[in-house]
Amino acid sequence: MEQKHQYFIQYMIKNGISTVENATTFCEYVSKGEIKNMTHLKTLILEINREISQQFYKIVLGNCEVTNNHLVLWLNTKNDKISQLQNIYSALELEYFHSIMQEILNSEEHRITFIVCINITSTLTDFFSRDKGQKVLNKWLKTGYFVRKSAHIYLGPRMILEFTSYLKTHYPDAVCNLCSDIVFVGKQCASCQKTFHSYCINKYLSNQNKCPCCQTIWIGTDEDGEDDAEDSVNQSHMVTDDDSPNSPVMRSQTRNSEKNRNHRRSTEEDVSNMEGRSMRKRNK
Ligand SMILES: [Zn+2]
Ligand SMILES: [Zn+2]
After folding, report:
1. What is the pLDDT of residue 117?
2. Among 19, 80, 259, 266, which residue's beta carbon has the most beta carbons within 10 A?
3. Ligand 2 (single-atom ion) residues, CB below 5 Å
4. Is the dihedral of CA 216, 218, 224, 225 positive or negative?
């Protein structure tokens, strides 16, 4: 491995999660301008993954559905995530972790408010101060297990990646009908109720205006009722894997078209479609 590979590995170990933009800037700097776009970055990641796969590590690219950030994540590919976490967090912290996760999964919109999240500390089997809760939650937000957007906490990109098989087993409906990855905060077809990642359906709709599943003219409902106000880089929610064909440029374009569509959409549609969310699909 060359120095640029080693520097990038160190960068990913230190950060755990990074936007593609920041990762590319870093690589451009350490490679003295050799790496300056997505294709170069992907090549570098492939080369690194080839070297580190035997140590059960992997660098993956993905998307944040909550913030629409395009991300790079450093992952441990060993299967037993729970025992990995046990090495890092105390039993009570893990209990808190699972309680938050469950609370989000049980909520209709797959998000809970920050306040509710902190209040969960008082429901644990032993005393766990709100202060401690906030500290460890910040750690999980930084490392991508959870995502904060405005007042809400969502499942994060790392959570979805590392717990994919668990989530797919227990929430079989929470799958994007375009890319087959997990989706908890997406867009839903008003006619057939099928769910898609915002970035998947926006890309699809850039060429046409029909739902990919039922072929009726697309009227989407947002699963995430919030506005597009963004929080920090680390507060992200990722879904796809390394071979996502989308460039960051395309992503920012789809993001804009999504915004426009959101603005055009009437409140009436929003309200009338609130009832039929992905997890309660009537039919498949
Ligand atoms: Zn998708
Ligand atoms: Zn449809």
Report:
1. 97
2. 19
3. 189, 191-192, 211, 213-214
4. negative
